[in-house]
Design goal:
Elements lengths: L1 H15 L3 E3 L13 E2 L12 E2 L3 E4 L2 E4 L7 E4 L4 E5 L2 E4 L6 E3 L14 E5 L3 E4 L2 E2 L3 E4 L4 E4 L6 E2 L2 E4 L4 E4 L4 H7 L4 E3 L2 E2 L6 E6 L3 E6 L3 H19 L1
Parallel strand pairs: 1-4, 3-6, 4-7, 5-8, 6-9, 7-10, 8-11, 9-12, 10-13, 11-14, 12-15, 13-16, 14-17, 16-18
Antiparallel strand pairs: 1-2, 17-21, 18-19, 20-21
């Protein structure tokens, strides 16, 4: 009997922590619970309603619509949101975004959710807030459309090849407000060393993660040595 209780407990844990999967069965609205499988029973999803589970968007086309006030898709601390091969964009003049529950804060404080943007995804939100750790792989891009503080008590890591755009943050504003929140391949961001920054129109900026010179140098030396060996 005790053995069966253990098995039942393990199965129960697995069921309560099953990932939430985007299906898009109803529409493209990121706040509509009918577009997901695996939401906990009784959870009525909406803006600023916490999803306490991992969330996955695979090959999805998703919109963040304008809702009353400035709100967000909210995910609990310690959970991971994976955006893989997907396009998430603002619609209808939306000023909404993505975040953790109130009380989470990075780089100092309690971490909120992780947001992984991978597999050639394009992610656009007005802001990220409340301890979000956003990672963008080398095939993907992220755009934050808000002004003032679109990276709000959150952090961003770019892998080589990734781009990060700010629609309403100029280069000086980025340097003042967001540079300290950015890492490149897990290391401190250094202009001209592991990232470049260019103006995006008259109001914005775009950051591109680049290989560090030492990595490029070792690659060039390796190619040169290979050519010398072939000539011999």
């Amino acid at each position: 009997m005790f053995k069966y209780l253990i098995i039942f407990s393990i199965l129960s844990i697995g069921l309560t922590n099953a990932a939430v999967i985007w299906t898009g069965d109803s529409n493209s609205d990121i706040f509509d619970g009918a577009n997901y499988n695996g939401l906990p029973g009784g959870l009525e999803l909406g803006p600023n309603v916490t999803i306490s589970d991992n969330v996955t968007f695979n090959n999805a086309t998703v919109t963040i619509p304008q809702v009353t006030g400035q709100q967000r898709l909210q995910v609990g601390s310690g959970f991971v949101v994976t955006v893989n091969g997907s396009n998430i964009s603002l619609s209808g003049g939306s000023n909404d975004g993505f975040g953790g529950a109130p009380g989470s804060s990075l780089p100092n404080g309690n971490a909120g959710p992780t947001l992984d943007i991978i597999g050639g995804s394009q992610f656009e939100a007005f802001f990220i807030v409340n301890g979000v750790n956003m990672n963008v792989d080398g095939t993907s891009s992220a755009t934050l459309a808000g002004a003032g503080n679109p990276v709000n008590i959150s952090t961003i890591n770019l892998e080589t090849g990734a781009t990060l755009s700010f629609t309403r943050e100029t280069i000086p504003q980025f340097n003042t407000e967001h540079l300290s929140k950015l890492t490149i391949n897990g290391l401190a961001a250094q202009e001209g060393v592991n990232y470049t920054i260019d103006a995006l129109g008259t109001t914005g900026s775009i950051i591109t993660a680049i290989p560090e010179p030492s990595v490029s140098l070792f690659g060039a030396l390796g190619c040169a040595l290979l050519l010398l060996r072939r000539r011999r």
